[in-house]
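I had to read the description of the data format several times before I understood it. The format is easy to grasp once an entry is in front of the reader. For illustration, here is how one protein appears when written out as sequence plus structure tokens:
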Amino acid sequence: MRLQTIEQNVKSDYVERQFRKWYIQWLRPHVSREINKQRLKLIWDVWGYLPLLSIKALQLKDRLRLVMRFLIIDWYVAHAHKPLEISNICRALADRPAKPGEVVLEAGCWQGGSSTKFSIICSLLGYRLSIYDSFEGVEEMETEEKVGGYDFSGKYKAPETVLRKNLALYGETAVCSIRKGWFANTLAIGPVPYSVRLAYIDCDLPKSTREALAGIVPALVDDGWIFSQDFHIRSVQKLLSDPATWSRFGKGVLTITRQTHMLASIRFHKNEQLNFQRA
């Protein structure tokens, strides 16, 4: 197999950089609650939703409602992603409507901020959403993983009831199913029993990422997408950039594209030559 990593040429404009500098220096030290920090960041992050308005698969009224519902979720549900990241994922999914039996799979959900958004776009496009989480937070990190990085052990823990409440308040519960358990006991035991059109992995660890891939990749449709929200974590980036991680799946040419600082997309291309041009 062949693997190519492409860096997106994503640049923050001057105004956004100034907003960030101002926020870090003057506001962040005085704001303790995560949800309030998130609300403040919307001042410059909100523009990341503009790409949603160009989704041709949706009527204009549905695009506008999508943005409004996503903003409501941002205001009330703490999460760890940015509007532009969710927009990129939604646009990829909206390349076409769902085929029978296809799902969007989320591996790691915390309080359900991304889950509620995915449930809305899935409902509009005809997909089901399958959510996997231990609801015990991030597993204990190995000592070598903590060196030179952040210790995520135990972080992002929330009970399943919080996810269900947020889905009921802000999302579309009718398209959702929830699978509780460590990935080693769910995703890693074999291919999931449905066709995966798009998978979103946000688990902060290479071990958990590898376990998620074991269940996802064999079930991924030919034009499927995998997104990792952890590409800024060195150990996860190393895992995803290692050809040995993917060779056992026998899926052919692989392209990893870094969409933002944290988000990377992964696609397999059968019988295609790699494009070495910078995206």
Remarks:
- Residues 3-14+81-269 form a domain with the Rossmann fold fold (CATH 3.40.50.150).
- The chain has one domain: 3-14+81-269.
